[in-house]
Amino acid sequence: MSDTTKTATLTVDGQSYELPIHSPTAGPDVIDIRKLYGQADIFTYDPGFTSTASCDSTITFIDGDKGELLHRGYPIDQLAGKSHYLEVCYLLLYGELPTAEQLEDFEQRVTMHTMLHEQMKNFFSGFRRDAHPMAIMVGVVGAMSAFYHDSTDISDPWQREVASIRLIAKMPTIAAWAYKYSIGQPMVYPRNDCDYATNFLRMCFSVPAEDYHPDPILSRAMDRIFTLHADHEQNASTSTVRLASSSGANPFACIAAGIACLWGPAHGGANQACLEMLREIGTPNRIPEYIERAKDRDDPFRLMGFGHRVYKNFDPRAKVMKESADEVLELLGVDNNPTLQVAKELERVALEDPYFAEKKLYPNVDFYSGIILDAMGFPTSMFTPIFALSRTVGWISQWKEMIGDPQNKIGRPRQLYLGETARDYIDIENR
Ligand code: CMC
User: Fold this and answer.
1) In whole numbers, what is the pLDDT of the chain averaged over residues?
2) How many C-beta atoms surround the C-beta of residue 83 within 10 A?
3) How far is the CA of 226 from the centre of ligand 1 (A)?
4) Which atom number of ligand 1 is nearest to the Cα of residue 302?
5) What is the model's pLDDT at position 2?
């Protein structure tokens, strides 16, 4: 935590309290209210944490007004353009870009952990075939605590390291097997001679009767999707992982909690919801009707893939994802498909509409990622699992940072209680 000389003064009922202000390396100053309750017997109120920093961190920085996203200081467009997912994983986990030797060693360690304990296959078959793959992922990742006892002791740095590598390595296998199970095909084992993205595509799209060799443009696009989703500072699922882990829960349980949170349509589930919305709109001539619905305060409908809690100018990930979408669609020769036509027209109409401009609502990363994944052949139900596997490294990096922080305390928010005050129990016959 930075040393501070600046303070803020809070006056309550004529009594003043000096609150320290911390200056970050980038971003707005932060008023430290940790001692406020002890000193003034008062809480702060901030549902949705719109004005609250829940931790200090050195991993990811976002400037929502500038549309800037940095991982360990490196801009996301440079990482997406020049680096690749496993190198970004190394950067997020260890703080610096690896040397060639460190990268080779890291990639080797991940590659050697991609297989799942064979008995975990039985776990998959316990689910109904029509189970959403996110339901399977929450269950199977949570179940890893029952299979990998030797990496659940969070007080041991070595076990934390092994758990981290296991999660990054096995998540593609779990996501691909959830998909294979849902379509009734045999699960495909990982292959060590494929890179991370190609391996995932192969586990999803090859069958024992026929291998699958993705075009390098598709592998690159897949890798970019992973890279662009790798971390995003204290978003809902990351904060969930931190909160779960603040109680000392094991890493597999904490990541399962993160997956559950990511599932919701306001967060990771938006990519599935977005494509389903585009299909529901169906043809460009129905767009005005949906735009009007999105603007109607009495209608709960929102344009999926638009808006962001932090980005109020543009989402820098969306910019890169849009380029990738153009590349993939051209390669696959599907740049004229109806969903894409609706997407392009919707983007144009919404960006020209004063409602969206005034509220600073721009297409976010999920607007374009769904289009790419759909063109690649993934069903919409796989979009959020792919987000989950990409975000795993972010969750783990934040989890490791938190466990290593001596100031780490169990997370325990307080509340503004508006219920009944104490009253006497009434026997049932007298109610
Ligand atoms: N369509 C129509 N109106 C919207 C939308 C939208 N997509 N998003 C926000 N608004 C309006 C909202 O109704 C509100 O209007 P008013 O001021 O009249 O009450 C105003 O814009 C501010 O919205 P908010 O809900 O207070 O903003 P938030 O920061 O709480 O929500 C959000 C951010 C991402 C949950 C929201 O924009 C949304 O629901 N978007 C659609 C879902 C989506 O695409 N989510 C993916 C986010 S990116 C991936 C990720 O990080 O998970």
Assistant:
1) 93
2) 18
3) 23
4) 1
5) 59
* Burial of residue 304, with CB atoms counted within 10 A of its CB: 0-12 exposed, 13-18 middle, 19 or more buried: buried
332, pLDDT greater than 90: no
The residue contributing the CA closest to ligand 1 atom 34 is: 308
Least confident of 138-142, 198-202, 237-241, 340-344: 340-344
**∠ CA(348), CA(227), CA(67), 5° rounding?**
50
Distance CA 264, CA 404 (A): 29
- The confidence band for 112, taking pLDDT boundaries of 50, 70 and 90, is very high
pLDDT tens, residue by residue, 68-79: 999 999 999 999
Largest CA distance in the chain: 79
Task: Using DSSP, state whether 30 is helix, strand or coil.
Answer: strand
Q: What percent of the chain has pLDDT over 90?
A: 81
Distance 161 CA to ligand 1 centre (A): 36
Q: Are 373 and 272 in contact (CB under 8 A)?
A: no
| Helix-helix angle 270-281:338-352, to 10 degrees | 100
Q: Looking at this protein, which amino acid is placed at residue 153?
A: D
Taking the C-alpha atoms of residue 234 and residue 213, their distance in angstroms, rounded to an integer, is: 37
The residue to which tokens 């109607």 are assigned:
296
The sheet that has 15-22: what strands, in order across it?
A: 7-12, 15-22, 30-31
The answer to whether residues 34 and 47 touch, using CB atoms and an 8 Å cutoff, is no
User: Would the pLDDT of 336 be above 80?
Assistant: no
Q: 275-319 pLDDT, tens per residue?
A: 999 999 999 999 999 999 999 999 999 999 999 988 888 889 988
Report CA dihedral (44, 412, 240, 227) to the nearest 10 degrees.
Answer: 70
Ligand 1 atom nearest to 315, measured from its CA: 48
- Catalytic residues, by residue number, are 308, 366
Determine the Cα–Cα distance for residues 227 and 220; give it in Å rounded to an integer: 10
In this predicted structure, what is the pLDDT of residue 1?
63
d(CA 391, ligand 1 centre) in Å: 21
Using an 8 Å Cβ cutoff, are 254 and 354 in contact?
no
CA-closest residue to ligand 1 atom 20: 359
CB 71 within 8 A of CB 88: yes
Strand segments, DSSP code E, in 289-392 are none
